[in-house]
Amino acid sequence: MNAKTGNQFGWAQLCASNVFIEFIDTTLRGCAQVMFQNNPLTGLLFFIAIFVGAYGEGSPAVAYGCVLGTIVATLTGLAMRDRKSWRAGLYGYNGCLVGAALPTFLVATPVAWACIVLGSIVSVIATVCIADILKTWKVAALTAPFVFTTWMILLASYAFTGLHSSGLPTPTLPQQLISEPGTIFGGGNVFVSMFNGISQVFLFSSLVGGIIFVIGLAVESLWAAIFALLGALLAIFTAAFLDASPHSIHAGLYAFSAVLTAIALGSTFNQPSWRVLTYTIVGVIFTVLVQGAMNTLLSPIGIPTLTMPFVLASWLFLVPNKDVMPAHRQ
Amino acid sequence: MNAKTGNQFGWAQLCASNVFIEFIDTTLRGCAQVMFQNNPLTGLLFFIAIFVGAYGEGSPAVAYGCVLGTIVATLTGLAMRDRKSWRAGLYGYNGCLVGAALPTFLVATPVAWACIVLGSIVSVIATVCIADILKTWKVAALTAPFVFTTWMILLASYAFTGLHSSGLPTPTLPQQLISEPGTIFGGGNVFVSMFNGISQVFLFSSLVGGIIFVIGLAVESLWAAIFALLGALLAIFTAAFLDASPHSIHAGLYAFSAVLTAIALGSTFNQPSWRVLTYTIVGVIFTVLVQGAMNTLLSPIGIPTLTMPFVLASWLFLVPNKDVMPAHRQ
Amino acid sequence: MNAKTGNQFGWAQLCASNVFIEFIDTTLRGCAQVMFQNNPLTGLLFFIAIFVGAYGEGSPAVAYGCVLGTIVATLTGLAMRDRKSWRAGLYGYNGCLVGAALPTFLVATPVAWACIVLGSIVSVIATVCIADILKTWKVAALTAPFVFTTWMILLASYAFTGLHSSGLPTPTLPQQLISEPGTIFGGGNVFVSMFNGISQVFLFSSLVGGIIFVIGLAVESLWAAIFALLGALLAIFTAAFLDASPHSIHAGLYAFSAVLTAIALGSTFNQPSWRVLTYTIVGVIFTVLVQGAMNTLLSPIGIPTLTMPFVLASWLFLVPNKDVMPAHRQ
């Protein structure tokens, strides 16, 4: 631990000399890459936040699924030729999310655990596939491999009695939402909602978890932490302006995709500037609309949006990046 | 007006010397580009047709939305680097359609107007995004940016009580259509249906509006006007042969996408020839099938197809263009 | 016949000298390409299997549709510039499947036959379109043109009273499958299920038909025949492990896409090796999950998956091929 926190050089040397420690380091980076950070300490903090959140919600399987998914995906990544991407954790983050999502929505039976392992393996193949396709336009796969793989397994759970839903939304035809009573702007509530939104990236609501995630971000990039907080805040206000369900807003369900859009557009794929800030604000507001849209779109088939609103909105805003940003930014 | 109609040179000089007039000219071209024409007079005639049609249906908000959307999108386009596309109105036409579609399906509240502004801004980003992706295969974005942006906002309206549906189809599971009594081939009816179909590109049925649209087309391209009329006619006969709802046929709902396919395949992206004519006929007939298919596909989620049948069918026929057309056409 | 079976050289010369015989040869190759084989004898055996299966199920229209679709598509292919693809039957196989699928799900009225002709023509355009798009990533169109074209016509059948469903699934919201009593592992049953699965590629269950398909494969490629059988077997065990409906497993409904994935990944686009075998096993297992997922996904819109699970899973595994397979494989 000391090596890691107090002495990054020592840790780097340890990784270089010991294959097992290198693997642990890569697995931690895999977890950190869920929010675009290439830093093992960020990954460790994220894992802590996940255990805090999962135990807090009484669903420890989510945390163990996360660990399992990241490990399996990182192992699978060893079979790929691109060792640099492997070392940066880029084959691990989708498995991490597959491992968080499946126990959230399915009963943790042995068949479900087998699906987490299979899903994590496939998430790596999907990562290479989608990254290959998207490099034509110089855009990253984001969390699309996770979403695609998890959607397939969740949809399949309706057809296979070996997989039991524990939290999938019941398939229904969309109906106009009836205005719900309830306010979200009562003092500290917005503050809590904000951190709920950040922790919802890993599919749970947790104030403490959310705070640890932000600390983890700040360890690697202060801008990422700032954009995460501002993204969550702007998403909450946008959803409130559009009159979304106050309960959903408070649980962070309109913020988690927006948080990722804010980090991606604001700090990961652009250097902060006024122009980038404007672009990011439009992107975050649009992500909230896409979140509402995808809730409707998926309601007849009974699966959650996962982080697809973030993926769609960010692709939409990242492909034209070079046509929008000043020339020296390329 | 005289400068525009009587003296194109004078108008071009005026545009070159006055930024404000250049902006108006570009906005008019934006409207004309909905049907692929790069001509401010065509745009002006289209706007007139829109006002005639919108007031005729008692929904003036559609016309004002159109003007607002085109202006906002044209303004947003100023932020893009490609000034030639901007000047041709290629950043404006999707905003124009967003502005027509949202007030057609949503109650025109302040939140809805805010969504028109946001949607028009996003339509420009979507235009650059989709155009960037599609230039890999030398195909244009067509009206896909409009469809994507508008679908998102219409789907989102189910999740947000701030947006109220005024005309969205009720979500239902598809059912085989029961044969409806009614004929469409009673004398002048086909004539009216044809112009209804052309005006449905802007989401309303209007004989006078349709006629003005055709005149607007003819001002820039006689072939475009001819293909629009023949496309509408062929679509009506195809839909009647397949036994579609006579009411929908008469309202032009099977023709508007086919009209755009006919102009695109027949005159915009190809030079008229017998081979092109054959190809266009198959394309138009298939567009009618896709229209029926997408009506079914979207019925559980309660949104209209907009011009997606045209977009899908035209992409399908335009990508292989170079493999089908004689070599000198490339 | 003798020329074909006993003397390939004689047949090849005959094809070269007689345009009509060349066309028949190409049409037969079109049928064989449904399972990736470029061999007229394979195609002839496949057509025999189709007639056996179609008459066995009491739906001869399926067999005649198949013949018609392949012929129309092969004729349409003459209009394309790439004569080498035409000669290999690559413009024919999607039309063959369109011709099999439409009479399976629609009443064989004159309008339906017109749709088979139109669908076969469009399938060729879709083949060129999708192949053009996918060559950016060096991946084949597979049966996507067939799926796309047929889905459009089947979806459209709900909107047009001229087209009557004879076997489309009733649109329903997905529900968790209730465990069905019934075993699939009673002696010879697995054997029958395996061949049912292979014949389901052409949308019917037939032991004899399935056996003839395997013989047809073996005529051109022993590996293809082996992978078809192993793919079907693995799919049946996977579906049983996941507790799918025993009836569907026995009818081969979880195997047909897996059979195609196994042939594609195991023998067509890779040379058999241990690494390829492992990759193919993961691909086949995932195809079964995608089959379950797509059954759920499509249930509200009342259309069958056709071979889309194969297409999706195979694209997913073929795009990263070069990143996974040893360097000399490129």
From TrEMBL, chains A, B, C:
Site location (Important for channel permeability):
307
A GO molecular-function annotation: urea transmembrane transporter activity
- TM region positions: 39-56, 62-81, 88-105, 111-134, 141-160, 197-215, 222-242, 248-269, 276-294, 300-319
The answer on whether this UniProt entry bears the keyword Cell membrane reads yes
InterPro entries for this protein: Ammonium/urea_transptr, Urea_transporter, Urea_transporter_bac
What's in the keyword line of the UniProt record?
Cell membrane, Membrane, Transmembrane, Transmembrane helix
The entry's cellular-component GO terms read: plasma membrane
Its primary localisation, in coarse terms, equals membrane
Q: Supply the name of the protein.
A: Urea transporter
- Superkingdom of origin organism: Bacteria
- Give one Pfam family: UT
- Organism whose genome encodes this protein: Yersinia aldovae
What compartments host this protein? Answer: Cell membrane
**Can you tell me which family this protein belongs to?**
Belongs to the urea transporter family.
Bilayer topology term: Multi-pass membrane protein
